[in-house]
TrEMBL record:
It is found in: Cytoplasm; Nucleus. It comes from Pongo abelii. GO terms for cellular component: cytoplasm; nucleus. Its main location: cytoplasm. Residues 39-192 form the Snurportin-1 m3G cap-binding domain. Keywords: Cytoplasm, Nucleus, RNA-binding, Transport. InterPro entries: Snurportin-1, Snurportin1_C. Belongs to the snurportin family. This is Snurportin-1. Transmembrane segments: none annotated. Residues 1-23 are annotated as: Disordered. Gene3D superfamilies: DNA ligase/mRNA capping enzyme.
């Protein structure tokens, strides 16, 4: 909720207490807090093949692009880098993302990959939707929610004045050998990164 509302009341005193506890012999330069940093899921290399790969894992084919934390709240949509820098503000048709459809309760937080070539935010995961957090939900439920709710928002997959960037959910597939072979032979409307993303 703090991410969506940009409300960090009370957090300053906690940070000051931490600083008081630390004794430093060097002069420090005061940096702005990066409250939007480290919010995205990080990827790791899969070194060993898990025994439950075909049953419990999902593959997501990702486009070439930059990861972005999308926060739609208070009638505006903001895009942040992995390190927490705001790189763009715009209106969108996401819940809470423009002044026409924004209410105090509506905010949306998405984990996306931005393709500059296609002017599209490809949605990798849903973190919050219309003020409902999904952080503690199972991956398959979040993907189900994403693929059922994104199409319900009319015009979200189109580039318009109110929605200058398209928002498209990335498809996911089971990690069975047959499914992986099928996925590798598919054509996608974007340049695919390698390797593919696997999620438990």
């Amino acid at each position: 909720r703090r991410l969506a509302e940009d409300d960090w009341t009370g957090m300053e005193s906690e940070e000051e207490n931490k600083k008081d506890d630390e004794e430093m012999d060097i002069d420090t330069v005061k940096k702005l807090p990066k409250r939007y940093a480290n919010q995205l899921m990080l990827s790791e290399w899969l070194i060993d093949v898990p025994s439950d790969l075909g049953q419990e894992w999902i593959v997501v084919v990702c486009p070439v692009g930059k990861r972005a934390l999308i926060v739609a709240s208070k009638g505006s949509t903001s895009a942040y880098t992995k390190s927490g820098y705001c790189v763009n503000r715009f209106s969108s048709l996401l819940p809470g993302g423009n002044r026409r459809n924004s209410t105090a309760k509506d905010y949306t937080i998405l984990d996306c990959i931005y393709s500059e070539v296609n002017q599209t935010y490809y949605v990798l995961d849903v973190m919050c939707w219309r003020g409902h957090p999904f952080y503690d939900c199972q991956t398959d439920f979040r993907f189900y929610w994403m693929h059922s709710k994104l199409p319900e928002e009319e015009g979200l997959g189109e580039k318009t004045k109110l929605n200058p960037f398209k928002f498209v959910g990335l498809k996911n597939f089971p990690c069975t050998p047959k499914s992986l072979c099928d996925v590798l032979s598919m054509d996608f409307p974007f340049e695919v990164t390698k390797p593919l993303s696997l999620l438990p």
